[in-house]
Amino acid sequence: MVKLRLKRCGRKQRAVYRIVAIDIRSRREGRDLRKVGFYDPIKNQTYLNIPVILDFLEKGAQPTGTVQDISKRAGVFIELCPNQQTKFN
């Protein structure tokens, strides 16, 4: 099973995160399948590759809670099902 989750990067006390598609059995810094975004909580900057995220979600990938919140703010789930209420809302 594939999950969309955060992978910690950066230095001590200055964390930035990559949003990655990764196998559920891998550890946090394990080998990812694909990098799909970037999140900097200090500067509150987010970059998401929305077409790739939508592709993984359509194939059954599950986002973690934090990635789901970041994606909601960016409007990813609105693009996934524009006419329907989804379980992500």
UniProtKB/TrEMBL annotation:
User: Any keyword Methyltransferase?
Assistant: no
Q: Does the record carry Ribosomal protein as a key word?
A: yes
Query: Domain of life here?
Result: Eukaryota
* Predominant subcellular localization, coarse grouping: plastid
Keywords linked to the UniProt accession = Chloroplast, Plastid, Ribonucleoprotein, Ribosomal protein
Any GO CC annotation of this UniProt entry: chloroplast
What InterPro entries does the record point to? Ribosomal_bS16 (IPR000307), Ribosomal_bS16_CS (IPR020592), Ribosomal_bS16_dom_sf (IPR023803)
Gene Ontology BP annotations: mitochondrial translation
- Gene Ontology molecular function: structural constituent of ribosome
What family does the entry list? Belongs to the bacterial ribosomal protein bS16 family.
Name of this protein: Small ribosomal subunit protein bS16c
- Organism of derivation: Afzelia africana
- The gene name on file is rps16
